[in-house]
Amino acid sequence: MTQVTMSREGTRHTVTAKGHAKGRPDTCAGISTLMYSLYVWLINTDSAWNVSAKLDSGDAEISYETGDPGAENVWEFLLCGFLQLQADAPGAVSIRFSPTLGEKSDRTA
After folding, report:
1. Which residues, at least 6 apart from 70, have a Cβ–Cβ distance to it below 8 Å?
2. With b meaning 16 or more CB within 10 Å and e meaning fewer, what string describes 78-102?
3. For the segment 44-98, what is each residue's pLDDT rounded down to a tens digit?
4. Can you give the pLDDT at residue 101?
5. Domains of the chain by range and CATH?
6. What pTM value is reported for the model?
7. Cβ–Cβ < 8 Å for 60, 51
8. How far is CA 66 from the centre of its chain?
């Protein structure tokens, strides 16, 4: 199973994907596509700063800062993609949200 965690604290955004969606190469490909697409967008935009990325097989993390509303739309788009993968393969993908400031701490999709 791949555990995807999306967290936001202030202007800092972090998404991690750990593990493999065993038996679901299509789901693994979808997760990789979302992660690499986010990274490529981040390194080509002026809307984010302090971008860091580790994109290893079964262990990926992207972190960046933004205050731009357009970049927030990209975050929501990413969330929709992961939720769709989870809906299609609930035994292969699990999404967890870490709270933004002021939210409850145990919100899971």
Report:
1. 47
2. bbebbeebbeebeebbbbebeeeee
3. 999 999 999 999 999 999 999 998 988 989 999 999 999 999 999 999 999 998 8
4. 37
5. 2-108 (3.30.70.1490)
6. 0.87
7. no
8. 15
